[in-house]
């Protein structure tokens, strides 16, 4: 009887662990695959390289630098098991307020006609201050009331988006000073992103 039970018992699966690629390497391989797909698409459709194009590479690097700066800030929230839905809207509000203080006196429809041709550091400091204030409000609401970060930052997202539209009356802020626009041109955004990334890497590691 016991022999029959032992013979009918199913064999156990091997307990050896399967080797898996590191997460970073898997993501890197996926990115390479996506790049190859777009490269093949470029040669088929336009008979030219899609990625190995100097103008397109410069544009992508500039865009990645801007998004990277935003990602560095959001990373600090995520690693503390939080979430911030308002980062994009706060960025828009900060940019609008900063740009309104960087307009030239040649523009007749400046947001603040009496505050044109200001030194470039003033709109930068004010823009950073707006972002800092929004973050402080989010943090205070979460810490004092115990509201989940999802709800608190959702409210800030809607509020900042509405304030940005109300502040500019739905119109673009244009005619900025050359010294201010130079910050977002050339290699400057990349340099700023790399410096900030290194600073936060050191802060998080040590």
UniProtKB/TrEMBL annotation:
The lineage of its organism: Bacteria, Pseudomonadati, Pseudomonadota, Gammaproteobacteria, Pseudomonadales. It comes from Pseudomonas syringae pv. actinidiae ICMP 18807. The keyword Cytoplasm does not apply. Signal peptide: none annotated. It comes from the Bacteria. Belongs to the binding-protein-dependent transport system permease family. AraH/RbsC subfamily. Its main location: membrane. The keyword Electron transport does not apply. Keywords: Cell membrane, Membrane, Transmembrane, Transmembrane helix. PANTHER family: ABC TRANSPORTER PERMEASE PROTEIN YPHD-RELATED-RELATED. It is a multi-pass membrane protein. It is found in: Cell inner membrane. One of its GO terms (molecular function) is transmembrane transporter activity. This is Sugar ABC transporter permease. InterPro entries: ABC_transp_permease.
